[in-house]
Design a protein that fits this description.
265 residues, mainly beta, Jelly Rolls
Amino acid sequence: MNFPLLNSFGPLMLLASLCAGNMGAEQAVAAESWTPLFNGKDLTGWTPKFKGHPLGENYADTFRVEDGVLRVVYDNYSQFEGTFGHLFYATPYSNYVLRVEYRFVGDQVPGGAQWALRNSGIMIHGQPPETMGLGQDFPVSIEVQLLGGDGEHERSTGNLCTPGTHVVMDGRLFTTHCTNSTSRTYHGDQWVVAEVEAHGNGRIIHRINGETVLEYEHPQLDPKDANAKPLIRDGEVQLHGGSISLQAESHPVEFRRVEIRLLTE
């Protein structure tokens, strides 16, 4: 995978170690800058991919921008039949903090799985969308899983799922598909801010409303996964970056902010 040259300055903790002066002040300002990936007007820069449909087809007008909000909508569906969708941003990234403000709304479309109730995700370190198979459910990636509460039970958000991948956690290879974070439950239609801090050297941190809820490292392709196998080159399984996408899994969800702050390694 090829990644863009990252010219932004490092985080504030790094800046604190620099000598004082105008250059340090300029770097501090740059480190606080965020670049919107969603312009609040349309889907410029984003490309949909739905299971069973070619790249670029926005099946059933599922992804929309209305009133400045990027919405995942199912009013054109009579039944959900496993047509999982992902909206890919045009540029892959390696070292960054991605910030998304989201909320779940309304009712799940009939036919959606119980596990997909109030369920979406931010897919990072993903495969290029053009390499996905026509009938592929999910991109090979690291998923920052976003879950809403059902009004009754505890249900964390900012979790980890690993379609076609593994990570290292607590010093050992972790092959469990999904791992819960330590976040609290967010019931109803309230807005929640999710951040993922990704480093090309392997460290990834999940934050929900500013609190760290999960950490791991060394994301890597699963050599036994059918979708991941074709992505392995010369035996290299480590992931140092990749595509970013937002999920459509049968429950309406809204994103009113999607922005990135680049880091240097």
